[in-house]
Structures are given as structure tokens and as C-alpha cells.
Write a structure and sequence with these properties.
The protein is an alpha+beta fold and 321 residues long. The chain starts with 11 loop residues before the first strand and ends with a strand. The strands form two sheets. Strands 1, 2, 3, 4, 5, 6, 7 and 16 form an eight-stranded antiparallel sheet that branches. Strands 8, 9, 10, 11, 12, 13, 14 and 15 form an eight-stranded mixed sheet that branches.
Length: 321
């Protein structure tokens, strides 16, 4: 039996076409995914609006979910429309007004050879209340640690897919950063450029220009990242997509993480641990506090996801049609 202490208001999850009590387990311990990380997933948020709960950019998330499955040669057992209906059902059954939603496709019980040729693909969907991923510091600004390990390179694996096994690197690095007293980790890529956080994209601001990187820099081009680029252009800000050196990051006027879980979190300090056993040097980003452009975009993002901005209402899928 499992309690839901870390999953507030989670009472039911959807698994293979049926709703199940949250406290009951349904997956065999010899399932392929538990041994090799052969899964794909999405992190999706729903927000409270005046029209009821609304899921942010659900079609885009589901398109990437299916793309990720194709990367692992998965035959998805449900259509996009069926999965959307299942996500809405989970929201309704748990009576959630806002939520973090996690659909997961995985190779289940069948065989334990590396190639899951006898292991069927199964789908599970859960949802629960979840605040800002980095907690209260997400608004005031976080101190990040550049880890010595380089991000999985785009020449090694498709970085356009959210593959469960890849996030072992994220878990290790995020744990290491926190054990040293930092709020979050930050990866360089094999070229030595700034890549991304364990589960976040990164932006910097210099002289009013917003800069981020793309998949050639070994990052997942996040859906939140794309939304921010669009909003920034609507505000009249110049945007740039290009490689980001450590020096550009250290000398930025502002910096912030973005992603479904973290939303928008200012980065105010950074410690460079990328040289391994060498000296770790600390830098303040800009004035060492959340920047004006970051805060403006964070407010605009909050307004968009909560249905307060007509221009971005097409980004919302309402749970109760």
C-alpha cells in the first residue's frame, strides 16, 4: 500500500483504460522499464481559471509524447484523442482545480533482454497538486551549481525526446547540487557551453536581449521555452537562439530557468564546479536579484496559464468542456 503524502489530493490514477486507487500497485517488479529505464513521459500542468481547470498546451505535450514513444520504437496503444480524454478524466476523478499531470508510456512485463521484444507498451496517467518545483526560492531567485558532468550529447541520443532513462543523469546531478547546499544543478555540454538544468531550459538577458539555446546544444527544446520566446517577441523584446558560453552566462544582466515544473525561476547566483576537483568560483548574476525582464515575463506567463490573457487562450484546454 502506498500513501499520497508527496502527492496531495491524488486519489485515483489511470492505468490501461481503467481508474485505480492511488494506494494500489499494478506493475510487476520484473517489468522491463524498472531495469532499463525504457519509458517516455510528459510533465504537464493544469491551472485554475475562471472557466474551471485548464491544461496548458496539452496538444503540444501529447505530440511530443508520441514523438518520444517513436524514438523508443513504441507502438502506442492509444490514440492522441484517447489519451487526452484519459487525462481529463483523471483531473475530474481527483477533483483537481490545478495539478501536475504525468502520463508515462513504458515497456512492461514480458522479457528482460535489453531489447523489449516481448514486453508490451503500457500507459499510466497520474495527477496531483504540486507547487513551484524549486519552492519559495523560485520567485526570489536560486543559486545554481555547474556540475562537472557534461549533458548527454545530441550526437549520442535524440534530445527531442523525454526518455525516462536519460533522467538518471538529472537525478544524480540534482542530488549532488543539493547535497552541496545549492538550489539546482546546471549542465555544460560536450562543447563546454551552457546546456540546461536537470529538467529546465535556461535564458539569459543582456542589454535587453533574451538569449537561449537549441537542440544542437544538447537541450530539450521545452514547450515552456517556446511559449516564453513567443511572449517575449509580443512584448517587443529582441530574442536570440545561439550557443551560450559560460562567460556570457556569468556576465548576464539576468538569467532564469523555465519549464513545466519550475515555470519561471530567476537565477541570481552561480558556482562553477565544472572543473571537477579544482577551485569552485562563485558569481552573482547581474545585481544578484531577480531582474525586471524576468519578473515581467513570469507575470505574463502566470496570466497566460490562468486564462487572464485573451491572446494566449488557445494555449489552454479546459477540463470541463
Amino acid at each position: 500500500m502506498f500513501n499520497n503524502t508527496q502527492f496531495p489530493r491524488a486519489r485515483k490514477f489511470w492505468y490501461q483504460g481503467k481508474l485505480h486507487d492511488w494506494s494500489r500497485a499494478n506493475i510487476h517488479p520484473m517489468s522491463h522499464v524498472l531495469h532499463y529505464g525504457t519509458s517516455v513521459f510528459e510533465g504537464i500542468r493544469a491551472y485554475s481559471t475562471s472557466e474551471g481547470p485548464a491544461i496548458f498546451r496539452l496538444p503540444e505535450h501529447m505530440d511530443r509524447f508520441i514523438h518520444s514513444a517513436e524514438t523508443l520504437s513504441m507502438e502506442v496503444p492509444y490514440s492522441k484523442e484517447e489519451m487526452v480524454r484519459a487525462i481529463k478524466l483523471v483531473m475530474k476523478e481527483n477533483k483537481l482545480t490545478s495539478a501536475y499531470i504525468r502520463p508515462l508510456l513504458f515497456y512492461s512485463y514480458g522479457n528482460l533482454g535489453l531489447v523489449p521484444k516481448f514486453s508490451p507498451v503500457e500507459l499510466v496517467i497520474g495527477a496531483w497538486e504540486w507547487g513551484a518545483y524549486l519552492g519559495e526560492k523560485a520567485e526570489k531567485g536560486v543559486h545554481v551549481y555547474i556540475v562537472p558532468w557534461r549533458r548527454v550529447h545530441h550526437s549520442q541520443l535524440k534530445m527531442t525526446a523525454k526518455i525516462g532513462g536519460c533522467y538518471v543523469q538529472s537525478a544524480i546531478s540534482g542530488t549532488e547540487a543539493r547535497s552541496l547546499g545549492f538550489d539546482e544543478a546546471l549542465f555544460l555540454n560536450l562543447e563546454g557551453h551552457i546546456a540546461e538544468g536537470p529538467g529546465e531550459n535556461i535564458f539569459i538577458v543582456k542589454d535587453g536581449v533574451l538569449q537561449t539555446n537549441d537542440k544542437t546544444e544538447s537541450v530539450l527544446e521545452g514547450i515552456t521555452r517556446g511559449s516564453i520566446l513567443e511572449m517575449a517577441k509580443d512584448f517587443g523584446f529582441e530574442t536570440r537562439i545561439s550557443p551560450m558560453t559560460k562567460e556570457e552566462f556569468f556576465q548576464a544582466d539576468e538569467a532564469f530557468f523555465c519549464g513545466t515544473a519550475v515555470e519561471i525561476a530567476p537565477i541570481v547566483r552561480v558556482t562553477d564546479g565544472s572543473i571537477g576537483q579544482g577551485e569552485k568560483k562563485e558569481y552573482a548574476i547581474g545585481k544578484g536579484e531577480a531582474g525586471e525582464i524576468t519578473l515581467r515575463l513570469a507575470k505574463a506567463y502566470k496570466d497566460a496559464v490562468s486564462g487572464k490573457t485573451k491572446k494566449y487562450e488557445n494555449w489552454l484546454t479546459y477540463v470541463h468542456d
